[in-house]
Amino acid sequence: MFFDSRRSTVHAKNGMVATSQPLAAVAGLKVLMDGGNPVDAAVAAAATLNVVEAVSTGVGGDMFALVWNNADKSIRAINGSGRAPAAASAKELRDKGHGEMPFLGVESITVPGTVHGWETVLNECGTMPLSEVLKPAIRYAEEGFPVTDYISYQWSTMVEKLSRLPSGQEMLIDGRSPRHGEVMRLPELGATLRAVAEGGSKAFYTGKIAEKTAAFIQEQGGWMTTQDLAAHTSDWEEPISTDYRGVTCWESPPSNQGIAGLEALNIAEGWDVPAMGSQTAETYHHFIEAMRLAFADAFRYVADPTKSQVPTAQLLSKKYAADRRTLIDPQQAMKTAPYGRVTGGSDTIYVTCVDGKGNACSFINSVYNNFGTGMIVPGTGIALHNRGALFSLEEGHPNELAPNKRPYHTIIPALATKDNELYLCYGMMGAFMQPQGHLQLIRNMVDFGMDPQKAINALRFMVVEDGVLLEEGLPSDVAAKIQSMGHEVQMVSGYQRVGIGGAQIIQRDPETGVLSGGSEPRKDGCAVGW
C-alpha cells in the first residue's frame, strides 16, 4: 500500500538535490550547475529553506551533516548543534516546581548552532564561500516568495504562538499568516542573512546580533549571555554505522538519536522480513516493537558524550540486538518496552545532494518545534529554537540539563554505502519519526527492492508515547489486526500525514553514475537533477 503521489523516481547523471520545497531544491541545483559541490549546494538549499520554509528551520536552530568524499571513500560527520548556557540549572527548574523541561519556555533555548555549522562545513568540505551560497536566501527574504499550500497551512497554525510577543509580527502579515500563493517578504531575516554573508559566523555570535539575542532572552527570563554565544563551536565527529544485509547504514553519533535507528535495524536483521510481506500486520508489529525497544535505550542512554558516558559500542553490537530481539512476542505487543542493561557509562528540513562525481552531503537543519519557541529576536527575524526541551530534569540522568551541555538531539542525517561505494544519501524530517523513518526506508529498499520514490510513498507507522500512528489507506483488516496485537492504533490522514515524516532519497548506481531521487509527497517535496 502506497501514498498515491502519482510521482516517478527522478533520474539524472550530473547532479541532484532533493528537499521539501521546490525553490530551495532549485537553489541547490543551481549551485551544482555553477560548479559547486554537494556541501555548497546543501548549505544554499538549507539557507533558502530558512526563508521559504521559515516555520521549520533557520539560523536560530541547529544543523548536522554527513559528507561523503567519493575520491577517498570517506565519511565525515559535523555536529553543528548548540549547548545550554553556562548559567543553566536543572536544580533551579526543579525548585520552581518543574518535573520536566519547559517545552516552549525561554529555558528551552540553547545556543543556535546553525550559522557556525554552515561556515565550518563549507570551510572544510565546500568550494564556495558563505557569502556566495547565501545569495538565494537573501534574495527571497528581501524580494519575497510565493508561499506553498502546505507551508501556508503550517504557518496558519502558528499565529497565536507568534503573537505572544510583539516581535513575532516580523513573521506575519498584518497579524495573520501568509495565504497559499501570497508573496511573503522577511526583510529583518534578510538583513541578518546579509550580515552573516558579509561578516561570517562572527557577525552572528558577536556584535550587534549577539547583543540583541542575549538581551532579548534575558528580558524573557532566560540564562543566555553574549559570552555563551561567542564561545560556541561546531565539532567534527566519527560517524557510527551498522551493516544491514550487506548495506552499511551511517548516522551521526550521540548526542544524536541516529543510534536508535541503527539498533532497530540490528534487531530486524534477525527476521525473514521479505517472507512477512511489506505491508502486513506481522511486519508492522515486528518493526514497531523493534523501534520501541530502540527508543527505550535511546531515551535512557543518549546524551552529550563529553558530559556523560554513552555506551555506543554496546548499543550497536549484534549480540545486544539479538538479546533485545528475544523480548519480542510475534503475536503480542509488549505492555512496556524496557531499556536494556548495558555496562559502562519537530519540525525540521532535510536536504540530500549528490554530484556527478559521486560526492554527497546529507544535511539536516531545524528549530525543533514550528518556529521553535515562537520567540523572534526583535529586528532580526531569528526564530529561537526550543531544542533544550529535550534535556531531562531527572537528577543523575545522563541527559540531565547542565551548563555548556548539548541535549539529546532528534535531527539525524543518514548515508548508506554498499561495497564501499555510495548507495543512498537520505533522511527524514519529523522529530522522533526520524530514526523510525530511516528504519522503514532501508527496509523498503533493501528487503523489498523498492526504488526511492516508492520507498517514500509506502505507508508508514510512527511509534508515539501512547501507541502507534498508521496512515489512512492501510486496509482496515490490517489495522484491526495490529490493534488486536495490543497496539493502541490511531489513523492519520490529510495534513496530519506530515507528522509521520518528510523523506528525501538520492540513490547512486556506482557502475553508471546514474542518480535516482525521490521526494516527500506528503509535503511540498521536490527532487531535481541535471
Based on the structure given, which CATH architecture of the domain at 240-347 and 418-509 is correct?
Answer: Orthogonal Bundle
Strand order of the largest sheet: 1-20-19-15-14-9-8
The tally of strands reads 21
Q: Structural class of the secondary structure composition?
A: alpha+beta
Which CATH class of the domain at 240-347 and 418-509? Mainly Alpha
Shape: globular
Could you estimate the helical fraction of the residues in percent? 25-40%
Cα-based radius of gyration, to the nearest Å: 22 Å
Runs in which pLDDT lies below 50 for 5 or more consecutive residues are none
The average pLDDT value, as a whole number, equals 96
CATH topology of the domain at 240-347 and 418-509: Serum Albumin, Chain A, Domain 1
Strand content: 15-25%
Distance N terminus to C terminus? 31 Å
Number of helices: 20
Largest beta sheet, briefly?
A: 7 strands, antiparallel
Q: What is the CATH homologous superfamily assignment of the domain at 240-347 and 418-509?
A: Gamma-glutamyltranspeptidase, large (L) subunit, C-terminal domain
- What is the assembly state of the chains in this entry? single chain
Structural features:
530 residues, 7-stranded antiparallel beta sheet, 35% helix
